[in-house]
Amino acid sequence: MQTVAVSTTQTDGGAAGRALGDQIRASLGENPSAVIVFAAPTFDHEALLRALSEACSPELMVGASSAGEFANETLGVGLATALAIHDPESHFSLGVGRNLKSDPAQAARQIVGNFAGPSIHRFRYRSALVLSDALAGFADALTDALTVETAGDYQFFGGGAGDNASFERTTVFCGTQVLSDAAVALEILSHKPLGIGVSHGWEPGSQPLRVTEARGLTLISLNGLPALEAFEEHADAQGQKFDRSSPIPFFLQNILGIETPGGHRLRVPLIVHDDGSIHCAAEVPQGSIVRIMKSSHASAAEAAARATEAAVLAIGDHQPQAALFFDCVATRLRCGDQFVNEVAAVRERIGDAPLVGCNTHGQIARADGQFEGFHNCTAVVCVFPG
Question: What is the 3-state secondary structure (H, E, C) of 103-140?
């Protein structure tokens, strides 16, 4: 396996795509088996993808709009980054599922229908990078459906496309196509294991609360009272300021954790409605037990370190050849300049292996022994073995 991580500060879509493709071509000297690309929402994504494809002729290309990008030592907002892989010993396929919002189960069937794994049996390990249109929602249902459609034989990692927390338009990339209300997946069949690690640095900061009513992304009531009241009571108890008209500063420091047997799955509250309900970045199941969570900048970097260590451990005796890293845009906004410490924590643990990643609107992870499903504010790391 040969890999290369590239980035560009070009702001024009076509110029950015050519810059990425030229770097890939110069470094690999071969047509990539797959290119994974993340690009800020400010780009003309179609122009970028066309130019990238023309410059390095990848066999497959997949990606998403992003909310902060990083590659090796480069980190910022408004960038385009890519990881290129040339690996004739593995098998790559590209699946796309449409109409995610109306039928996530059918979208999963469409994706898996393009997978080669069901008909190719010579590979021991099966994984897939999954990227979804975050604004379509239902990433949790999609991940569950993908697990069912693959009979639990695959591990999944990835996240929701971003737009710098504007929540106006998020897109995924399939070849040179830019898609909304869709999810894409890069199937990776290999003879060596891909390592996936998942961790977050949050801990309970409140007493348990029952979700007594929820609908889609809207959390309506906790313990039979408007959801807003629980947050206001928590703010008073902690001596924090909570402004209904501008709740994001409070919400970034006080997110929700859904109790599961493996720990708390995180959800970010976003908007307060007039009736006291709260719009969240992902679904909060009715009937679940939640807590208002707390964290620190240091714990976020520690979580990235734990996730990377778990991913490296999962590849056994192999050395890291490359890594993908996903974390939430909410984490970047909360940590500010300190977010660089998270990326540094990953780089320190993969040595000289190329690193590419982005801030997403939610993270996807499903692997043996790992915290499963769709997350917010969680570090997800995938390490490719050498």
Answer: CHHHHHHHHHHCCCCCCCCCCCEEEEEEEECHHHCCHH
